[in-house]
Write a structure and sequence with these properties.
- The chain is α+β, with helices and mostly antiparallel strands and about 130 residues long.
- The protein is built from five helices and five strands, in the order ββααβααββα.
- It has a domain of about 90 residues: Arc Repressor Mutant, subunit A (Orthogonal Bundle).
- It is flat.
Length: about 130
């Protein structure tokens, strides 16, 4: 996957890595930004469209400082971004493709759940669950 130069190129520029493990550390940091149930819920909320910071409180039942901290983590990871309109701050997904990543996790969870069903309770092939 990596050439000796350890370069990641994209449409916006080129990022050089000192070594291959730096690349995996960056990936790990990105996954870490999602490793919180509230941040996962924020991503799902933002999948529906842009939202004012003031509207997150009712959706998450958290205080504004905690919501702001979670949004800052997602922002630093490059998952979310914001824009200001007067005194209001609106957040949206910077990288909606992150939803594909989460859909893959859902598939793993589904398969894991199927593995836990005793054979005697499993439906025959072709039947819907």
């Amino acid at each position: 996957m990596f050439a000796r130069l350890h370069i990641i190129a994209n449409m916006k520029g080129v990022m050089y890595m000192k070594n291959e493990m730096d690349y995996y550390r960056k990936r790990s940091e990105l996954i870490g930004a999602l490793a919180n149930p509230y941040r996962l819920k924020i991503v799902e909320i933002l999948a529906k469209g842009e939202l004012c910071l003031c509207e997150f409180n009712s959706a998450l039942d958290l205080d504004y400082s905690t919501i702001s901290r979670h949004l800052t983590i997602l922002k630093k990871a490059g998952i979310a971004h914001y824009r200001k309109e007067g005194k209001k701050v609106f957040y949206s997904l910077r990288t909606p493709c992150i939803l594909n990543f989460l859909n893959c996790f859902d598939e793993v969870l589904r398969l894991n759940a199927e593995d836990c069903i005793p054979p005697s309770q499993q439906k025959e092939k072709g039947e819907t669950l």
